[in-house]
Amino acid sequence: MSKDLFGKALLDYQSGNYSEDLITSTNISDDDELPLPYLFRSYSSMPKLEQKALQFAKGKVLDVGCGAGNHTLWLQDKGLKVKAIDSSKGAIEVSKKRGVLNAELKPLLEETSTFDTILLLMNGTGIFQELAQVSKYLKHIKSLLNPNGQILIDSSDISYMYQYEDGGMWIDVNSCYPGELDYYISYKGEQEAPMKWLYLDFDTLNTACLTVGLNCKKVMDGEHFDYLAQLKL
What we know:
Shape: globular
Strand order of the largest sheet: 5-4-3-6-7-12-11
Number of helices: 6
Strand content: 25-35%
Largest sheet: 7 strands, mixed
Structural class: alpha/beta
Distance between the termini: 36 Å
Helix content: 10-25%
């Protein structure tokens, strides 16, 4: 069962009890600090991919995995109607404290309303967990789109993480798609149960979209093997 360490960290920062950062790692990478202030960033501090996605947002918006509500708050200020959802109770509480008008504790697959724009940012494909579930999630998200609606999603091609210095590649032949990772979070000495997290290269995402009747267009490349894509009916 989740301890919601992510939510606890957000609540600590929001309450002025910031003393240490989240520690993250994966089955192919070592411990890395995730600074809590970054999770409360303003528009000017966001990566260009996120800024571009927010600029593209229109109509009624669903912000999936809203975290502390950074994207929702910016869109609200621009006059858009936004619903923010997250599976972290602490994140939803913080979002509301910061001024998010419509925030709900809810997994994506339980959402039933329809929207003109659906945002899945900060490696939005992570929520799919593994390659075998991509079609299920895409079909569901597709069902939430209004006519002429759009999905804005970002991810990364992490094949570079399997590359040797001489240019050769290390791939575990017993593993599945190389973007399928086990993701670990710890905070203040506590360890969260590991979760599945998926990074999708653009070609794989594009192929998955075609199989469920979605058009996938790359909007822009990021600075480090990442990209932003727009999905439409």
